[in-house]
Design goal:
The protein is of the alpha+beta class. 49% of the residues lie in helices and 16% in strands. The radius of gyration is 22 Å and the shape is globular. It binds flavin-adenine dinucleotide. The site of flavin-adenine dinucleotide has 21 residues, from strand 1, strand 3 and helix 12.
Length: 405
């Protein structure tokens, strides 16, 4: 792999870093103090500024109005945007919308693209993705109770979902529902587009996550579908294609997440080092003179460098060979980077002492909202299991497939 980054890309990343530091860092304390909704008018102004600078939709092809960055380039950008919780949102490349844009581009009909994709690309609306159910282990994604039954020209959807991130204020959801229970598990479910002003849909609540239920885009909804009727033309791709499409959505999505987590690591690392150099534990004795603090710094630097190269390599593998061929690399980065981030953020919190756990420090946000990185998009254990199975297969042992068998 060629690790050199063209000068033009470096200049672009430098300009984005400057923008993030100047325009977005000031939001961090206000975000916590006032809540996300109160920031929306100011964020709308910043999003317009991003559009004017030609940075809007970095992950989307030029044909669809984006910047057309490669996966590796977008990964590098994601590390810049990830330095602050609002970075991706301001560039319209935030989860879950980015994944929904990708699948609508790949699988949407012209009509679906006009209704759902185009306003999403413009940033006029937001969306969400409803797959996980509280009654079933999300780590076994083929196990679900939500159904979509044909009735005349419609599907009638019934089900209960949670962790439908960003449901509050979203205009539509992509819901995963069983359309044929008699098929093999991986062909039972389909993805269906549901406008959220549908009378059969209810946002029950925003789920409190470690003391913070959040608002709007920055929230996780519990939702219900009760005789929720949508036209059959809202089916995305074909019937039974739900899991195949989900796989398409997850490969590049994990690169985006992992590089965002690298951004979180870099920001935490920088603050930790600056504090270690400045904070004195006795007159004229900076914290950084203590060997245990030096160890946090050295370990963190080594772990971040290693994680970053692993993710860029995985992105390169996806670009060269496709997400399916790069499954092992994708699983490896998912649990490695999530754990690296957890360790680095924790060391930074420790280094900053009491200040590190206040809501004045950005870490409290990272601590609360990024700990789930080891759970969503496949818990650590599931990824480790799948990597080990593949490796053991090469050594002649075949272990039955399926998340929890
Ligand atoms: C912040 C956040 C955002 C999310 N956003 C979305 C969203 O937008 N849309 C959506 O549909 N879902 C979303 N999810 C749900 C997420 O995908 C699930 O939480 C995840 O799939 C795990 O499912 P579960 O919570 O039911 O845990 P379970 O499946 O019940 O697993 C619990 C724990 O058991 C362990 N475990 C599971 N399987 C194995 C195994 N095979 N071997 C060993 N240990 C195992 C793991 O440690 C796991 O954490 C989100 C979750 C979080 C926390």
């Amino acid at each position: 792999m060629d690790f050199s980054i063209p000068q033009q890309t470096q200049d672009f990343l430098g300009a984005v870093r400057e923008f993030v530091e100047k325009e977005l860092y000031p939001f961090e304390r206000r975000d916590h103090a006032r809540g996300f909704k109160a920031l929306l008018p100011e964020l709308a102004r910043i999003r317009e500024d991003v559009k004017k600078r030609g940075w809007w939709l970095p992950q989307i092809s030029k044909e669809h109005g984006g910047l057309g960055l490669s996966l590796v380039e977008h990964g590098l950008l994601s590390a810049e945007l990830g330095r602050t919780p609002l970075g991706h949102y301001c560039f319209n490349c935030q989860a879950p919308d980015a994944g929904n844009m990708e699948i609508l581009i790949q699988f949407g009909t012209p009509e679906q693209q006009k209704t759902f994709l185009d306003p999403l690309l413009r940033g006029d609306i937001r969306s969400c993705f409803a797959m996980t159910e509280p009654e079933h282990a999300g780590s076994n994604p083929v196990w679900m109770s939500t159904t979509a039954v044909k009735d005349g020209d419609d599907y009638v959807i019934n089900g209960h979902k949670w962790y439908t991130s960003s449901a509050e204020g979203a205009s539509f959801t992509v819901v995963m529902a069983v359309t044929d229970p008699n098929q093999d598990p991986h062909f039972r479910a389909s993805m269906i587009l549901v406008p959220l002003d549908n009378p059969g849909y209810t946002l029950v609540r925003n789920i409190g996550v470690m003391g913070d239920a959040g608002e709007d885009w920055a929230s996780h909804g519990e939702v219900r579908f009760e005789n929720c009727r949508v036209p059959q033309s809202n089916l995305l791709g074909g019937e039974g294609m739900g899991f195949a499409i989900a796989q398409e959505r997850l490969g590049p999505g994990r690169i985006h997440h992992c590089m965002r987590w690298i951004g979180i690591c870099e920001r935490s690392f920088e603050i930790m080092c600056a504090h270690a150099a400045k904070r004195e534990v006795a007159p004229g004795v900076p914290l950084g003179t203590r060997q245990m603090v030096q160890q946090w710094i050295a370990d963190s630097r080594a772990e971040i460098n290693a994680a970053r190269l692993m993710v860029l390599h995985a992105a390169w593998c996806i670009e060269q060979h496709g997400a399916k061929e790069a499954r092992e690399e994708i699983s490896l980065i998912k649990f490695t980077v999530a754990n690296t981030m957890q360790r680095v953020v924790d060391r930074a919190v420790q280094c900053l002492g009491g200040y590190g756990v206040t809501d004045d420090a950005v870490f409290s946000h990272f601590y609360r909202h990024e700990r789930p990185a080891r759970i969503y998009d496949g818990p650590d254990e599931v990824h480790k299991q799948s990597v080990a199975k593949r490796i053991l297969k090469r050594h002649g042992i075949t272990i039955k497939s399926g998340a929890n068998q």
